[in-house]
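Researcher: Quick test of sequence recovery. Tokens follow.
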């Protein structure tokens, strides 16, 4: 019999680890325990399934337990791991359907318990019609509420990227929306002047945007009817909680798996934890940030897939390395695209860099091409070393993929002058002769 691998959590990281381990060593016994009813789903697509752009939430499932079984991976849904015993190398598991508990042995353990959506202890938080969005069941429940209750008003609490994506999704159902954010801007990781373009887009699309406001509670009868913020009553027949996520570390912490300074599981570049034969990956773990050269917690699907793959290869005897992230994200907010990579100006200054920013607005295509749109590019660099530290962009087209140029430059450790000399493509339908990135970079010279 081969060595036994237990994976806790069947999300992006867990199933990537399982699949890579299987490919690397066909003799391994691999079992995945997943608390929810689904494994291997693309959570990033939920807002588009809720909007209706993707017909069914189930279309986001990449592979079913039956498909994994054909690969020799046992993926058990509705199985919750209650405890890890690192000395005996066991986990205690509850089958949530039968309520039966049992103990399973592992030679290698992969912890991919993911993130947990924040749930502030507000009065009325448990009313029907109040949803967080993390798992397939959440997305299905929101769709069902939309179809059966036909809410006409809604409140989104939180202006991070999930709150913004959900604004577009709910607006598509004709819901009159209020978005409440306790900070002075949406998308707090972005510098305020660029985020203001997103705020303008929300208002243009009819969203009642309330910045600097704190929610005091939710009110209703058998279901939610309103949200109270700053003493005002805002009608809400549906409420989306999008107040951020935390790493789901309780199980790991109880077993003595070490956490890093961010509160997520500390891992090395092979996804090893502090305990032998125990690996961690995805939203539950930290990632090395290449620009600031320290671990960060940035829960993203792209990192979860890569870290899971590295863990899976290494536990199967490989020598794979996860080189870290530069922090690249993109978000669509109605007709606007916003994206960033590396550090914002505020973050770069907080990290102690002699940081400054240059900002330019230039066209997405040649000015004579129909449909060209302005793109605002902000580039952050260190005035002493000239090193590029980050980039942010907002515009109506050509933003989300242009940011990848910045990601590549950051990973390569370029200066802003290297970026200014970059031989970017030019043809009128795709870009102007001076791409917006080059226009901004040249302002720093
Ligand atoms: P998770 O997906 O959280 O999976 C962890 C799994 O572990 C869960 O299924 C959970 O049920 C299970 N689990 C937890 N505890 C136990 C236990 N004790 N026993 C058994 N099972 C357990 N990222 C991007 O890069 N781009 C995007 O555009 C993007 N959009 C997103 C939009 C939304 C609405 C959401 C919710 C997320 C989005 N993300 C995006 C983030 C991305 O989905 C996550 O980073 C990714 O899913 C993390 O994968 P994971 O496997 O680490 O964690």
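Model:
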């Amino acid at each position: 019999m081969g060595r036994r691998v237990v994976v806790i959590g069947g999300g992006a990281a867990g199933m990537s680890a399982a699949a890579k381990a299987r490919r690397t060593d066909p003799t391994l016994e691999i079992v995945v325990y997943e608390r929810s009813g689904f494994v291997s789903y693309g959570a990033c697509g939920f807002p588009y399934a809720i909007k209706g752009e993707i017909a069914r939430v189930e279309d986001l499932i990449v592979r079913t337990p039956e498909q994994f079984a054909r690969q020799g991976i046992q993926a058990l849904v509705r199985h919750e791991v209650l405890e890890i015993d690192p000395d005996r190398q066991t986990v205690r598991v509850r089958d949530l359907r039968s309520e039966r508990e049992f103990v399973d042995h592992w030679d290698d353990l992969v912890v991919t318990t993911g993130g947990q959506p924040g749930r502030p202890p507000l009065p009325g938080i448990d009313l029907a019609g109040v949803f967080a969005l993390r798992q397939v069941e959440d997305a299905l429940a929101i769709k069902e509420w939309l179809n059966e209750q036909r809410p006409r008003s809604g409140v989104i609490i939180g202006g991070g990227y999930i709150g913004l994506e959900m604004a577009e999704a709910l607006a598509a159902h004709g819901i009159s929306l209020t978005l409440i954010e306790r900070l002075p801007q949406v998308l707090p990781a972005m510098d305020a002047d660029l985020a203001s373009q997103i705020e303008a887009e929300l208002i243009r699309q009819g969203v009642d945007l309330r910045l600097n406001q704190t929610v005091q509670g939710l009110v209703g009868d058998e279901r939610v009817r309103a949200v109270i913020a700053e003493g005002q009553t805002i009608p809400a027949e549906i409420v989306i909680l999008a107040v951020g996520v935390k790493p789901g570390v309780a199980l790991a912490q109880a077993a003595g798996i070490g956490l890093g300074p961010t509160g997520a599981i500390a891992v090395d570049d092979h996804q090893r934890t502090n305990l032998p034969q125990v690996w961690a990956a995805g939203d539950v773990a930290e990632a090395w940030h290449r620009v600031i050269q320290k671990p960060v917690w940035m829960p993203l699907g792209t990192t979860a897939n890569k870290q899971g793959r590295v863990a899976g290869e290494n536990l199967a005897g490989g020598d794979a390395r996860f080189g870290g992230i530069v922090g690249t994200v993109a978000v669509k907010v109605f007709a606007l695209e916003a994206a960033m990579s590396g550090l914002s100006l505020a973050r770069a200054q907080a990290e102690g860099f002699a940081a400054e920013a240059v900002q330019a607005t230039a066209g997405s295509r040649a000015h004579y091409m129909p449909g060209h749109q302005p793109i605002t590019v902000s580039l952050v660099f260190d005035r002493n070393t000239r090193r590029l530290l980050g980039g942010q962009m907002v515009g109506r087209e050509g933003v989300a993929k242009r940011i990848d140029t910045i990601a590549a430059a950051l990973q390569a450790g370029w200066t802003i002058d290297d970026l200014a000399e970059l031989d970017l493509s030019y043809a009128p339908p795709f870009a102007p002769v001076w791409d917006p990135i080059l226009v901004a970079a040249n302002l720093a010279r």
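Residues 8-14, 33-36, 43-44, 46-47, 80-81, 112-115, 133-135, 162, 248, 251, 282-283, 299-302, 304 surround flavin-adenine dinucleotide (CB under 6 Å).
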